[in-house]
Amino acid sequence: MMKWLMAGAAALLASSCTALTPAPLEDDAAPFDAAAKPGPGDRMSSGRTLGVRSAVVAPHAAAATAHPLATQTALDVMKAGGNAMDAAIAANAMLGLVEPTANGIGGDLFAIVWDPQTKQLYGYNGSGRSAMGATLADMQAKADKYMDGKEIPPFGTAPVTVPGTVDAWYALHEKFGSRPMLANLEPAIRYARDGAPIPEVISYYWSFGPKRFEPAHESGMLEEYDNARKTYFSPQPREGSLFTNPDLADTLERIGQKGRDEFYKGETARTMDAYFKRIGGPLRYEDFATHTGEFVEPVCVTYRADYKVCELPPATQGITALQMLKMLEKFDLKAMGYGSADSLMAQIEAKRIAFADRAHYFADPKFSRIQEGAFLKANRLDRQAAAIKLDKAMDRVPNFPFGDVEASITPEAAAAADAKLKQGDTTYLTVTDSDGMMVSLIQSNYRGMGSGLVADGLGFMFQDRGQLFSLDPNHPNVFEPGKRPFHTIIPAFAFKKNKPSCQTRALPIDQACPFEPWLSFGLMGGGMQPQGHVQIILNLVDFDMGLQEAGDAARWEHVGGCEPTNAFSGDPCEADKGVVELESGIPPAARAELERRGQTVKCCAANAGGYQAIMRDFDSGAWIAATEMRKDGVADGY
């Protein structure tokens, strides 16, 4: 009997190893190559070979963030009586401390919230505006001086817009929160004073700060750098170190004690005003005092009949994900298979079409000439989908104009701008609680930790989001005083028809069966975000992946082409077809076939983003949570 068991175990292990052998790390690696780099170990699973770990299953509440301490903080808040919104704010405050490479109270925030009490989905636009005292001529002069006239400088006062995060915290807390705000901020305050742990990936990104800021300061682009150097780089945090930020602790404590107006009208606002006056920047007290965020209506589309995916409207790029999904609905992706050349071609070409719209028309809706519903009209989407050919990449994206609103962009300007939009530094988190509240929250300083500016004694860096304005006066996204720039950061949400429940209630599944809240998710990374949202939905719906596997699976990113920061004139959009960047898990045969069909392919360098997600299991009622294996974070629950 023992001999039979040992033989059976050996056979099972052999078959498992065959099934789970990782893809080669190098394009042309032989089956055995003594010089090849060692790969990861094999992982036993129930047929899900693309996941690197299991998803979390939690009966009561769950959280997924980019840092273990932030996830722990969210769960601690809910265990102490807070709800998902309290937990999300507490986690976001902690991330501003431990992940300043991506976010902080000097940046903006967007959120989508499912409220089980009202049974409604809410959106919040927590983005700030440009200084009222700045002009397009000022920005053009800065661009001429530091950027050869091509774009707004990435560092210093030029790209700084009013931070919208604190306002968003308080607006969301007033509507949905249950605990005092100071209690929600207390964990971040305590760790800022005592020392917060810095993990591997965050410390890696942190190391780039001085390389970016010091040359910018020496050139004069960055008007002041001593405060940032003292706050973040003296000494340079390393993996395993404890980072303290007592100035940030004091600022968060004042905000928690005195409320939202402390940041926008109180001592903090006066300090920011004095700082910008001292260094010659245009932001003033009045810019902070008049700031308001706003609740907005999420925009949703059905996908494959049984799913409904929701994003926020412009000036974010969320609608591009919805456009891509509706175009891709015309293709049998399931039959094509995950990672196949056909499915990749359909996705890439849909991206190129949707991003051309994004470049032409996306801007602060108070200044744009196109309403979001126009992008999702069925007849226009049908024409866009019909332009996709699987056997050959489009030489250029056709123009799909809205009446007399038409635009085109030079490929040279497009290539320069795309590099800028690719590099967004962002954090995404999601939290759910036992009552069914689901929070999808994204927050960012934009790129490179932000502008490089830290106001005297406040402990946070101002964002450089204003770099995403166009300098062309004919573009809807052109810089203007008191205007919000185009935004890359987008939270997402999805509903699903609960068919077993509908069958139990004898409801017709095709029509009367209602959509129920199903998935709170997001994926970080500049222009990768809508592309990543689409890939997650396709992985879950078309390719039958689990929640963790859907994020771990190899991704693609198309870069190049039209951007909302370009000039609004010139040759037809996207004469340059751009580059498809692939992760190493995309099969070499598929990569070669994409090239044969006219795509320019680069392996393996995709800006893969950072994924977090929580899903409701309709059968058990439990939460399923997943996190990004490419980051430091964890998903957890109880």
Kindly summarize this structure in a few lines.
The protein has 638 residues and is of the alpha+beta class.
SSE layout and pairing:
Blueprint: H1 2-20, E1 56-58, E2 62-65, H2 68-79, H3 84-98, E3 108-115, E4 120-126, H4 136-146, H5 165-176, H6 181-194, E5 196-197, H7 200-206, H8 209-219, H9 226-232, E6 242-243, H10 246-258, H11 260-264, H12 267-279, H13 285-289, E7 294-296, E8 299-303, E9 307-311, H14 318-328, H15 333-336, H16 341-361, H17 378-386, H18 411-422, E10 424-432, E11 438-447, E12 492-497, H19 499-504, E13 515-523, H20 528-541, H21 547-552, E14 556-559, E15 579-582, H22 588-596, E16 601-603, E17 611-616, E18 623-627, E19 634-637
Helix pairs in contact: 2-3, 3-6, 6-10, 14-16, 14-17, 14-20
Pfam family, one: G_glu_transpept
Keywords: Signal
Signal peptide: 1-19
Description:
- This protein is α+β, with helices and mostly antiparallel strands.
- The chain has a single domain, classed as Glutamine Phosphoribosylpyrophosphate, subunit 1, domain 1.
- The protein is 37% helix and 16% strand.
- Strands 1-18-17-13-12-9-8 form a seven-stranded antiparallel sheet.
- Helix 2 (68-79) packs antiparallel against helix 3 (84-98), helix 3 (84-98) runs parallel beside helix 6 (181-194) and helix 6 packs antiparallel against helix 10 (246-258).
- The longest helix is centred in the middle third of the chain and has 21 residues, at 341-361.
- The chain is globular.
- The two termini are 42 Å apart.
- Mean pLDDT is 87; it is low at 1-32, 403-424 and 563-574.
- InterPro entries: GGT-like_enzyme, GGT_lsub, GGT_ssub_C, Ntn_hydrolases_N.
- It holds the Pfam family G_glu_transpept.
- This is Gamma-glutamyltransferase.
